[in-house]
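Morning run. Coffee first, then this:
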Amino acid sequence: MPKKFHLGWFTPWALDEWNEPFSSAGGKPWDGKFYVEMAQALERACFDYIMLVDTLMLPDAYGHSTEIYLKKGLMAPKHDVAPLAAMIAANTRHMGVVATLSTMAYPPFLLARLCATLDNIAEGRFGWNIVTSGEDIAAQNFGIDKLPPRELRYEMADEYMEVVKQLFGSWDPDAVVMDHATDTYADFTKVRPIHFEGKYFKCRGPLNTVPCPQGRPAYVQAGGSPRGRTFAATHADSVIATSHGVEAMKAFRDDVRAKAAAAGRDPDDIKIMFLAAPVLAETEKAAREKYAQGVNATSFIEYALALYGAVTDIDFSQYDLDQPLPGKLTTNGEQGMLDRIQQFGSGKTLRQLVVDGGTQSSVELIGTPDQVAKRMGEVMEEVGGDGFLIKAPFARLSRRNIAEITDGLVPALQRRGLVRTRYGPTGLRDTLKEF
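And here it is:
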């Protein structure tokens, strides 16, 4: 029997494909119903989790203007992911729901309280995608002129994780007794302050919520830089990876697993999910034509550069599309994303970099559902595991795109015995550990 791998979906709480022939919600998904129905489709396909991506600013990196972001509905508008996570959890039964919440935006107590609330609503299926935020304009929305350097952000995040760990543990699992004979709801001896006082954070505690059904939510994190990988290996249950090509995917997974072992963790407890954007059609020829049309479109190249700029805080509009980038670029934002984009020393023009980057899939997945399923199995065999985090190609999400995956690709994977056909354990952390 082939070794099974995990599936998640990486989705922005943003516009659907509102201006295309196969538009779905028509650019009006803000009541959440489009995403609830999407989650229900993913649950029928037995996905491990849906991850709701978030940022905390209106970008203006590309051309130092908000024009393209608002004109194209790119990374804006966005709404708060926490209420959406609650809606999805209330309308599903088995699949995990992961929300992106920034350590910059939430004091540890508020974040732990929110996560405990959501994990209870989800009956143990909630996950927290841990981010420190990487954009100065996001920081400015919280009264901070400039973000600390990346290394310091991770140092602060390590202490933050210790605070929330203690808060999640401030109620013993059996603190709620509901003893009718003594008229006692909770045993006060099993709930205690944490009195945390560190270098960056101070918190009395305890939480004023009942414990998380999972003890704590599942932790998801994307760490591309060496320091980010160490953070992920120390804390995460699932890691989002953007490595390009099988060799790089295997190297990334091996590195994170080695770091996890060095931190005293069982590497098998961490599931590394590689971003993938399958391009599917009835024939391989049609799928390749669909891909070529997408990545070579002028609108897509501008769209992609604006997106890269938003997360790296670099204005790519200043560079000639038909010339290589002028030297190696650095950022205080997402360095891993920048390294993948620029391919320093390759001699490629900026246009070639965007086209070669394509859908930002870790590996090329173009063809019929059966062809792509076969390739995904081969890749996982070479890499060693652990799964894929699916996203819409060309950053355009529609009901058609969702159906191609849930009703085309996933059945092809299931026929090959590569992904689950039913859910087992009830909690998200246990689901991730099932195989």
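The longest strand covers residues 6-12. Good start to the day.
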